Amino acid sequence: MEFTVLFLATAIVMLIAWRGRRPLALGLFGVVLIACIATYLHHATDTLSF
Amino acid sequence: MTQARAITLNALSLYAVALVLAAAYAAQFILHELPCPLCLLQRILFAALAVGPILNVRFGPCPSHYAMSLLAAVAGAVASTRQVLLHILPGDAGYGSALLGYHYYTWALIGFMTAIVLLAAILLLDRQFEEDGVVLPATGGAFAQIAVWLVIALTAANVVTTLLECGFGACADNPVGYELLKHAA
């Protein structure tokens, strides 16, 4: 589910970058990037299974 | 490099991102290889690479726009490096099939590293950031506009396909089918 939300948020940031206000696009891009890093760290701490 | 040339280069980079997202879809729909969680994260970070060029096309080249893409490329390189390392042990067949000898996450790492080098190289060209008085076509012209909408459409399509694959719960580590379609059947 988190990946669907991240794709949706990225698409929204693109639309704002293309049609909306620049500061809003920059701020939302930062939020999306932090959310991506948080998702990565969440999965990076999973126990590896072989 | 003039502002007009920089905008053309940014439009070309958007076509490159669209090509990567389309290639990922080709593996998903033609080879029936569903993306794992780390693969999805790499796709998202490829899409995030496009936000900087979109801003450059609309507002003109700016170092902060390139910096945004650099940050996304570094995050993508970290994610793809982790996936390479997960499958580096001898005897590990890797995740998914290989293309020209490399798995998709290895190609992703090469793609992100290439993006980092190209972004650093384009930042060296200072003239693009100076006002040169040339009247540029509104929002970059048709070539750039098609590139922007192509990337946005592919990212929006990924919203739908990821929802179909993962459903409303956590994505499977090794997905074999579309979660939402299983429930619908």
UniProtKB/TrEMBL annotation, chain A:
Alphabetized InterPro entries for the sequence: DUF5993 (IPR046035)
Entry annotated with the keyword Transmembrane helix: yes
Pfam families: DUF5993
UniProt superkingdom: Bacteria
Transmembrane stretches, start-end: 24-43
Key words of the record: Membrane, Transmembrane, Transmembrane helix
Record protein name field: Uncharacterized protein
From TrEMBL, chain B:
Entry protein name: Disulfide bond formation protein B
Matching InterPro entries: DiS_bond_form_DsbB/BdbC, DsbB-like_sf
Keywords: Membrane, Transmembrane, Transmembrane helix
Gene source species: Bradyrhizobium australiense
Lineage: Bacteria, Pseudomonadati, Pseudomonadota, Alphaproteobacteria, Hyphomicrobiales
Topology class, membrane: Multi-pass membrane protein
A molecular function GO annotation: protein-disulfide reductase activity
A Pfam family recorded for this sequence: DsbB
GO cellular component annotations of the record: membrane
